[in-house]
Design brief:
CATH class: Alpha Beta
CATH superfamily: Vaccinia Virus protein VP39
Oligomer: single chain
Number of domains: 1
Bound molecules: S-adenosyl-L-homocysteine
Number of strands: 9
Radius of gyration: 16 Å
Number of helices: 6
Largest sheet: 7 strands, mixed
Helix content: 25-40%
Strand content: 15-25%
């Protein structure tokens, strides 16, 4: 009972931290409340699952900080009619959050090991509107395009053209942009009816790099 009460308090504090930091979209807060982050981190890190920090996962990658997950989801302005493309599945946590709000999520990961683990995890947890593909996210998923929303969860030096092409008219893309070692920012793009891309620079962040090609090692 004491352990359960402690877990409840931890989840309440998790929500409070997100609200205090400015997350106000109810659908995003609900999704963050519903998805059990402890299932997406390494077993050794389960105790830190609700701390507002990024944590290491397999293949030298990271599961993003909860605040950044919530912030990017809020900025994506995603809703129930949307089909979403995510690049950088990692643990599958961000895909799970998106799946609670959107109609369908397609997520691409360059490490087969991570893609397979995330696919199994999402299936076990019942997130059945997510498709995880192993491949090069720079190429997107042209056979499933266009997408209403695109989220990239690894930092690119420049906006990947192929992903812009796969964005529907009126669609939005949120991605961390910037060089590997210097300041990266979340950037939000909106594709206008005339094809014009409106660009907004948002908060400073630190992400692992978006690397070209599917990983050769597992
Ligand atoms: N969204 C993840 C966090 C991802 S970390 C989560 O919620 O856990 C970034 C991920 O992007 C890493 O797993 C990395 O392997 C992947 N990645 C990097 N470059 C990629 C590319 N070109 N295509 C697909 N995935 C890529």
């Amino acid at each position: 009972m004491a352990a359960e009460a402690a877990a409840d308090i931890e989840r309440m504090e998790f929500q409070l931290t997100l609200r205090r930091r400015g997350i106000s979209d109810q659908a995003v807060l609900r999704a963050m409340d519903e998805v059990p982050r402890e299932h997406f981190v390494a077993a050794d890190d389960a105790e830190s699952a609700y701390a507002d920090q990024a944590l290491p996962i397999a293949c030298g990658q990271t599961i993003s900080q909860p605040y950044v997950v919530a912030y990017m989801t809020e900025q994506l302005e995603v809703g129930p009619p949307h089909r979403v493309l995510e690049i950088g599945t990692g643990s599958g946590y961000q895909a799970a959050i998106l799946s609670r709000i959107a109609r369908e999520v397609v997520s691409i990961e360059r490490y087969r090991t991570l893609a397979d683990a995330a696919r199994n995890r999402l299936k076990t947890l019942g997130y059945d509107n997510v498709t995880v593909l192993a491949g090069d996210g720079f190429l997107g998923a042209p056979d499933r395009a266009p997408f209403d929303r695109v989220m990239v969860t690894a930092a690119a030096g420049k906006i990947p053209d192929r992903l812009v092409e796969q964005l529907a008219e009126g669609g939005k893309m949120v991605l961390p942009l910037g060089p590997r070692t210097e300041a990266q920012h979340i950037v939000k793009l909106t594709k206008k009816a005339n094809g014009e891309l409106v660009r907004e620079k948002l908060i400073a962040v630190r992400f692992v790099p978006l690397l070209p090609g599917q990983a050769r090692e597992l």
